[in-house]
Write a structure and sequence with these properties.
Elements: E1 2-3, H1 14-23, H2 26-29, H3 36-46, E2 53-56, H4 58-70, E3 76-81, H5 86-93, E4 97-102, H6 111-119, E5 124-128, H7 140-149, E6 154-158, H8 162-165, E7 179-184, E8 197-200, H9 203-212, H10 220-231, H11 233-256, E9 268-272, H12 277-286, E10 290-293, E11 303-307, H13 311-323
Parallel strand pairs: 1-10, 3-4, 3-5, 5-6, 6-7
Antiparallel strand pairs: 2-8, 7-8, 9-11, 10-11
Bound molecules: pyridoxal-5'-phosphate.
Pyridoxal-5'-phosphate binds at residues 6, 58-60, 84, 128, 132, 158, 160, 184, 186, 192, 197.
Length: 345
């Protein structure tokens, strides 16, 4: 069981596979991709105009496009920490440097230090919402305060896990010209292999990004998969609802075992198993269960990140974890707080 990449653990909608089989047609494969109709359908799905949408090879490519379009050597990227490392990666490839504001001890994003850092002149802010690896969200009211405090800074809100949180900044695109939202088909839609995503922003910014992009940024199969996925979005949303229910069940179970965890709005949970967590990870691997060990981050010693899967998969995970209970010493970690009782935004 791959519970280390926050993927869809049961796979995409069967209708998507059928659409991909239909797309594997010799005539269709011999022609270059057509984007106009697809952009219209996807824009309709997200509730924006087609001119506001940029097609990308997943979120990773979206970040590359954003950096290639806007980042000059020496520019500053501001990120909460810990977060998804791709923002920093492409920003630094473009010659920029990164400033970090650490989450507080309750894994909340402290607004004051963010506002202070923004005053120093920041090219863009990378905000995963929900955040990876914490699963927490930035309160939308805090995002609004930041957007208004730094109108010349681009705020890139990465909504890769939107289907599991239900919170989106898309309606604010009309009002805030410094807002960029990214979406992906890699998570709830179960199409990580196809590499398909979108940037949503105002028309002018989208046009600037498209001009600098590869003329054929996504391939026809990725496009066919994405179109079928939105047509059958009900399947992904049902999967997301199951994951939300399983996330709550796993949370209650961790509480019963007195394992501190960060309340999550995504399809994974960051939990503190204590100093033996690398060994717990290794033992799970020996049982063919992969989880993500965060011990390499000094602030997350003792933590494992568990992707939440379907009910049957979570039963297997709990069964194997119970066998390792003797190794769990959460209170011997560098923090012994129970965030489960705190609030997550
Ligand atoms: C916050 C966040 N954004 C984006 C991605 C990856 O998205 P994609 O597959 O669209 O590149 C991940 C994957 O783990 C993620 O955690």
């Amino acid at each position: 069981m791959r519970l280390d990449f926050n993927e869809n653990t049961v796979g995409c909608a069967p209708a998507v596979v059928r659409a991909l089989r239909r797309a594997l047609d010799r005539d269709k494969l011999s022609t270059y991709p057509e984007y106009e109709g697809a952009r219209m359908k996807l824009a309709g799905f997200y509730g924006v105009k087609p001119e506001q949408l940029v097609l990308t090879n997943g979120t990773d490519d979206a970040m590359k496009v954003i950096c290639e379009t806007f980042v000059e050597p020496g520019d500053v990227l501001l990120v909460p920490a810990p977060t998804f490392p791709i923002y920093q990666f492409f920003h630094e490839v473009a010659g920029g440097r990164t400033e970090r504001v650490y989450f507080d001890e309750n894994f909340r994003l402290p607004l004051k230090p963010m506002l202070k850092a923004l005053k120093k002149g920041v090219r863009w802010v990378g905000l995963a919402n929900p955040n990876n690896p914490t699963g927490t969200t930035v309160a939308l009211r805090d995002l609004r305060v930041m957007l208004e405090a730094a109108p010349k800074t681009a705020f890139v809100v990465d909504e890769a896990y939107f289907e599991f949180s239900g919170e989106t900044a898309i309606p604010w695109l009309r009002k805030h010209s410094n807002l960029i939202v990214t979406r992906t088909f890699s998570k709830a839609f179960g199409l990580a292999a196809l590499r398909m995503g979108c940037i949503l922003t105002n028309e002018e910014t989208a046009e600037m990004m498209r001009r600098g992009q590869n003329p054929f940024p996504v391939n026809s199969l990725a496009l066919a998969g994405a179109l079928a996925a939105v047509e059958h979005a009900g399947d992904a949303l049902r999967f997301a609802a199951e994951i939300r229910a399983e996330r709550e069940k796993l949370s209650r179970w961790l509480e019963k075992l007195a394992i501190p965890y960060v309340p999550s709005k995504a399809n994974f949970i960051l939990a503190q198993f204590g100093p033996n967590s690398p060994e717990i990870g290794r033992r799970l691997r020996a049982k063919n269960i992969l989880v993500r060990d965060w011990n390499y981050d000094p602030r997350l010693r003792g933590f494992l990140r568990l992707t939440v899967g379907a009910a049957v998969q979570m039963r297997i995970l709990r069964r194997e974890l119970i066998r390792l209970q003797g190794l769990m010493e959460p209170s011997r970690g560098h923090r012994a707080k129970f965030w489960a009782t705190g609030e997550s935004s």
